[in-house]
Design goal:
Elements lengths: L4 H4 L14 H13 L5 E5 L8 H4 L23 E5 L10 H7 L4 E3 L2 E2 L1 H14 L3 E5 L3 E2 L3 H13 L4 E3 L10
Parallel strand pairs: 1-2, 3-5, 4-6, 5-7
C-alpha cells in the first residue's frame, strides 16, 4: 500500500520516516510471492489537482508526478497488478475486489504506509469482504509508535487478522 516517493523519501510531500525501513521486508515478501506465482498487488495513492483530500493532508501523490511513483526498490513487475486509488481504502471505487475474486484469493498480506490510514482502511475493507488479513509488523510504517501499535491492535481485535513478521509468511504455489 502506497510505497510511493511522497511517503517514503525525505523529499516527499508526506514523508513517513519509518517507511524506508520496511523496504527490505516488503521486497522479500514480493520475491516469495512471485516465486510461488501468488498475485502481487500494488496500490498507488493518486490525486488530481485540487483534490478535496488536499484540504486534509496538503498536496501529495499528484497524478503523473515523481511523488506518486512507486519507489525504485519496489517497482511493479510485468505480472503484478497496480491499483490507482483515490481514497484511503484500496477497495473503494477500484477493481481490487474483482481482481482478487477472479484470482480466487482468500488471504491478503497487507504491507505499506501509512499504517493507521491507508493500510488500516484497506485491511479493514478486505476483512469486511471476508478476506483473511495477514499483516507483517516489519512491513508497515506509521508517523508515530501510537499509530503503529493502534493499527496492529485494530487488525487483530476488530478484523481478526493475523499479525506476524514477514519471515513467518509462506505463500502457496498456484
Amino acid at each position: 500500500v502506497d510505497m510511493q516517493n511522497d511517503f517514503v523519501r525525505k523529499e516527499g510531500k508526506l514523508y513517513v520516516p519509518e517507511a524506508e525501513k520496511t523496504i527490505p521486508a516488503i521486497r522479500e515478501l514480493l520475491r516469495k510471492a512471485r516465486e510461488s506465482s501468488a498475485l502481487a498487488v500494488y496500490t498507488q495513492d493518486w490525486h488530481m489537482k485540487d483534490d478535496p483530500e488536499f484540504k486534509i493532508w496538503g498536496e501529495h501523490a499528484l497524478a503523473g508526478t515523481w511523488g506518486a511513483e512507486i519507489v525504485d526498490e519496489l517497482k511493479p513487475e510485468k505480472d503484478d497488478f497496480l491499483i490507482k486509488k483515490y481514497r484511503y481504502d484500496a477497495f473503494f471505487e477500484t477493481p481490487l475486489d474483482y481482481v482478487l475474486r477472479v484470482k480466487n484469493v482468500q488471504n491478503v498480506v497487507v504491507v505499506g504506509t501509512v499504517a493507521n490510514i491507508c493500510v488500516l482502511h484497506t485491511a479493514g475493507s478486505a476483512a469486511l469482504r471476508w478476506y483473511n488479513v495477514v499483516m507483517p509488523k516489519d512491513g508497515i510504517s506509521a508517523l508515530d509508535a501510537f499509530d503503529y501499535y493502534a493499527t496492529l491492535r485494530q487488525v487483530t481485535f476488530l478484523y481478526k487478522g493475523k499479525v506476524t513478521s514477514s519471515s513467518g509468511i509462506k505463500f502457496n504455489s498456484n
